[in-house]
UniProtKB/TrEMBL annotation:
It holds the Pfam family Aldo_ket_red. Keywords: Oxidoreductase. Residues 17-320 form the NADP-dependent oxidoreductase domain. GO terms for molecular function: oxidoreductase activity. Coiled coil: none annotated. GO terms for cellular component: cytosol. CDD domains: AKR_AKR9C1 (cd19081). This is Oxidoreductase (Aldo-keto reductase family protein). Its EC number is 1.1.1.-.
Length: 327
């Protein structure tokens, strides 16, 4: 199969219908073991490209920069123009007070480091990884616009954990007034059980023609079906080792939604994870969910979601299983 191409919001650029997230690249576990090393990262990128994928998502802090380095090394043997590469900036990279956030000093330093690690002259999409209430909007929007004018960035986006529709609107209205580049892509958390963006945030994206590229499409693994109601989570699972995750996800309302997904999965001959991805891909306001994987087999299973056809009734069943509630 080959992933289809879809518009990246109103940028005029097209991307594959599934983005590939590289947050596991170079990431060290508590025991010091690297979750996805260089060789495995390149195997995963090979498999993603072979499936027709062209939309690679990273960040300056993934693996303390190793993710960008691995991607840059992989791109050396390929045509850079064949891929749409997105990165992010915000989190601390130095101990000093200016080594984090969206202040101009930090943004300029990190922009140079991002390009150096990726081995490229530009990134297609630069997200602010979180909002910075300590830096005036005028300040960081002007700095980001400068990156676009200098040819270091093609488009701007905003990634978030908590919905902040009014802040994005404020920034884009200011950009319109000043002639700056606005945010054209949003990267919020969104999946069948994390529905906090429904309402103001998703409506804002539709009204301002902002593309939606959601992260955590499988709710941290909850929507894979590995957990069962009223049963102890598997010993090696995230829920067994992270009480905050267990308290957030192993809830009655989430299991209600999961059971609907499992019923649909059985009807279409797919896994709950594939149906969860297919639901997002069928969503009229979603551009491309960001998938991640530790192995090529996992990646292949996720990519199969692009072949799943949901009926309108199945899509609505999942949509209404849990609405306007955060997990």
């Amino acid at each position: 199969m080959s992933l289809a191409m879809v518009p990246l919001g109103r940028t005029g650029t097209t991307v594959s219908e599934l983005a590939f997230g590289t947050w596991r690249f170079g990431r060290q576990a508590d025991d010091g073991e690297v979750e996805v090393g260089r060789d495995r990262a390149h195997e995963l990128l090979d498999a993603y490209a072979a499936a027709g994928g062209n939309f690679i998502d990273t960040a300056d802090m993934y693996g303390d920069g190793a993710s960008e380095t691995y991607i840059g090394e992989w791109l050396e043997a390929r045509d850079r123009e064949d891929f749409v590469v997105a990165s992010k900036v915000f989190w601390p990279t130095r101990e000093d007070a200016n080594g984090r956030g969206l202040n101009r000093k930090h943004l300029r330093r990190q922009m140079d480091r991002i390009l150096d690690r990726l081995g490229t002259d530009y990134v297609d999409l630069l997200y602010i990884h979180r909002w910075d209430d300590e830096t005036p909007v005028e300040e960081f929007m002007r700095t980001l616009d400068g990156f676009v004018r200098d040819g270091k960035v093609n488009y701007l986006g905003t990634s978030t954990l908590e919905p902040n529709a009014w802040k994005v609107v404020k920034a884009n209205e200011l950009a319109d007034k000043r002639g700056y580049e606005p945010f054209k892509i949003a990267q919020p958390r969104y999946n069948a059980v994390n529905r906090e963006i429904e309402g103001n945030y998703l409506d804002m994206c539709a009204d301002y023609d902002i593309g939606v590229v959601p992260w955590s499409p499988l709710a941290g693994g909850f929507l894979t079906g590995k957990y069962a109601r009223d049963e102890r989570p598997p010993a090696d699972s995230r829920a067994a080792n992270d009480q905050r995750f267990a308290d957030s996800y192993l809830t009655p309302s989430n299991f209600d939604a999961l059971e609907v997904i499992e019923e649909v999965a059985e009807a279409v001959g797919a896994s709950p994870a594939q149906v969860s991805l297919a639901w997002l891909m069928h969503h009229p306001q979603v551009t491309a969910p960001i998938i991640g994987a530790r192995t090529v087999d996992q990646l292949g299973e996720n990519v199969v979601a692009a072949d799943i056809e949901l009926t309108n009734e199945q899509f609505k069943r999942i949509s209404t299983a849990k609405r306007h509630l955060s997990a």
